[in-house]
Amino acid sequence: MKNASFEADGIEIARQLLPQCTLQRTRFDLLEVVRILTGQSYADLDTAWRDIRATDRAMGSLLYSAGKLAPAVHALAAHESVLGELSRFGLIAPAIVDVNFRVDSKGEEKFLFDWHQDYWFSVSSRKAVVAWIPLMDVDRSTGGVELISTRYTKGKIFKARRGERYDSYADGAILDEELPECTPMRETMRAGDVLFFSFDIMHRSLPVLSESRSRWTVQVRFADFADREFLQRSYRPASVSKDDTPYLRNEPIV
Description:
Layout: H1 4-9, E1 11-14, H2 20-38, H3 45-55, H4 57-69, H5 71-77, H6 80-86, E2 94-104, H7 119-122, E3 129-134, E4 144-148, H8 150-153, E5 160-161, E6 174-175, E7 185-186, E8 194-198, E9 202-206, E10 215-224, H9 228-232
Helix pairs in contact: 2-4, 2-5, 3-4
């Protein structure tokens, strides 16, 4: 049975969908990468990240890259509870088109995503779905995301252009038209909750206010092998680089 809330808004939070032991294993695996990189053992990720930022920010980039490759992160992406929810959002045969890992901290706002749609970055299908998974609790001090319901955007794919600078792939496509007047949705989340939203949902990252805590998240993009647009794109998701944003040179397939 399809989810009525998701059909109306394109957004749904599944509370306590992931087991705490699975999230703890992910945090342990990331701490093991930290130990390899720094030669030090840490009890928690936030303390490790503060030390890395203070001493060697380039090492932080290595941890960011490692997170996207960690088996424990991919285990979250393919967890049976996550895959089970996708059928309620209309996906028949889910395909993982992208697994991303982020650490957002106060003072690094240049890496945040402004208003955007994930379709701009992976293309694949307008019916694709994102699973946004926090590894720790997300509250006002660690920000989160703001989202605009499809009640206001009506499923429109908005115009975008390249950013004037390129600090990260977030600058590969930025909004190039006005948004409808509305009140964005913002939710607090606990570790174990999973936020699902469709590829056409307009959303943005919120800044982290805490000096001591960062926002650790995994984002998984799912398309559907049964979806006509994904098939017409030969099951090949787009990839954004400093020199190329495929969405900016391709019209959506209707």
